[in-house]
Amino acid sequence: MRPGIAKRIVFTAVVLICFFLQTAIFPHLAIARITPNILVAAAVSIGFLNGPFEGALAGILGGFLLDISSGGVLGIFMLVLTILGYLAGIVSEHLYDEAGYTPVLIMAVSDLLYGLFVYVGYFLVRGRLNFVYYLAHIILPEIIYTCIVGWVLYNFLKTPSRRLNAL
Questions:
Q1: pTM for this entry
Q2: The domain that contains 45 carries what CATH number?
Q3: Domain tally for the chain?
Q4: Distances in Å between the alpha carbon of 163 and those of 27, 56, 58, 60, 67?
């Protein structure tokens, strides 16, 4: 099996597992009704570790799964996660952080952008204008929870990613 194919199979499995965790497990582990956005963390981690192309692929798959499970407009989450995974890959080409703090910072910014997108797309267009409440009670706690889980995910993916990239 070619190394590129093996890498994509592994990262496809990672995204599928993260989707399962985000939709089936973490809703039961919610803290104050806040759950982490593991698919953002997965797309950012994969993009940061492997470059923009793999980050975009992870975003496409994760976003597609979110789109079909949410029952909303097909392609919205796919577009957002693709852009976030791609941008994480672009940033990784210019920065490297062995300790893993840069990817966590990128996850925080990505989850902030994701939360702003959800606010505009699902709340603002319906006339819900209380942005400060949404920011303080939804977006910021989700960023913290996502960064904690994302840091664990990033460190879990770091070694296999290096091995697959060395093939």
A1: 0.91
A2: 1.10.1760.20
A3: 1
A4: 33, 20, 18, 24, 32
